[in-house]
Amino acid sequence: MFKKILKSYDYSIISVYILLCLFGLVMVYSSSMVRAVQWYEYPADFFYQKQKINLLIGFIVFLFFAIFPYKAYRNKKFLIFMTLMAVLSLFAVTVFGHIAGNAQRLIELGSRKIQPSEFVKLSVIIYLSAAYANKQRYINHLNKGVFPPILFLIFVCFLIKIQPDNGTAFITLVIGTAIILCSGMNFKTISKLIAICLFAVLVLSPFIVMKFDKLFTEGNKDRFVGYLDPFGTYQDEGNQLVNSYLAIGSGGVKGLGLGQSVQKLGYLPEPHTDFIMAIIAEELGVFGVGFVLLGLAYLVLRAIFIAMRSRDPFGSMLAVGIATMLGIQSFINLGGVSGLIPITGVTLPFISYGGSSILVLSIAMGILTNVAMFKNYEEKYGMRKQNPEEALRTVQPSIQQKYQFRG
After folding, report:
1. CB 402: neighbour CB atoms within 10 A?
2. CA-to-CA distance for 248 and 204, rounded, in angstroms?
3. In angstroms, rounded to a whole number, what is the distance separating the alpha carbons of residues 388 and 377?
4. What is the CA radius of gyration of the chain?
5. Total-model pTM
6. Crossing angle for the helix pair 11-38 and 46-67, nearest 10 degrees?
7. pLDDT tens across 133-171, in order?
8. Which of 218, 283, 315, 375 has the fewest CB atoms inside 10 Å of its own CB, making it the most exposed?
9. Is the dihedral of CA 328, 330, 332, 335 positive or negative?
10. Transmembrane helix as a keyword (predicted)?
């Protein structure tokens, strides 16, 4: 039994997860050493050492969630506790949170800072997946099956928005939307939801226009101005994006070499977090960027494949949520670095510096690995692998009971 379980694990997911984390650790050291000394007056390896601890904790957590059966998350008591903690943590950060980057989204616990909204993303994935998996019998009933989880999603996104953290709120909303669309609702129900959403947007549009200044901070507006005209606002709003362009353009195909970045010498703010991909492009060129993109793309596509092959609706929706979280977060980060979309402050999965991000992603990879293990185990050692005689012995009692009942 134990050997069968070990053979059922998807070691490609584990390998790519570890490779991306180790690559990210190297790049955190390369991109942060100058800033650590010049800006914070820390040792050159300060952020590297902290990220190393983050990865060690993350890997231990990953192993736990890769072993722990994911089906236990459907327990109602666990779901109530998890959603309550998610909401309370968002309220706590609103009242007691530490302000960083024009947003109040961190809670200080001793020498470490935790970003609750990162964990809330994972809570939304688990809750919506479990809720809709438990409502499969009446999944197309709007009042009973559809709306209750959606109301929770909207409430959580609102709490994240008022921090304000528009990037994480948008990611959470997209994750929830993907799970809803893949929950098993029929086309008619989904059409009704789309119509309701469009109607809500039309009703709220005048309010959004009237309260635009309050809904979006000066920092949000500056980022949008810098996105529209980065070179015209190089000295102010566009400075970060222009320096990102310079880093990407300087790297070319081969890159300047590991540790040889010029933009990390004080020109590009926060090179080890939001804009670490610009440093990768500058130092390692197309090959470094390609390695990261291929790794992230593999995890996203593998998660989608697991979702399609899983026979358990709960496991399938968990995989969809995790794939969406990785995909949309990567797109938003890379879009901001390349100027495709406005800068949002969202980190690059597995690569950027950040304890909360690494911990949440490690938990997500552990859950995905466990879902894949159950799927593989059912495919290899389930009914499909039984010979005809074993299958007949399995179903014979139920057949006999059926005909006895009829008689």
Report:
1. 10
2. 40
3. 19
4. 24
5. 0.88
6. 160
7. 988 888 888 888 888 889 999 999 988 888 777 888 899
8. 218
9. negative
10. yes
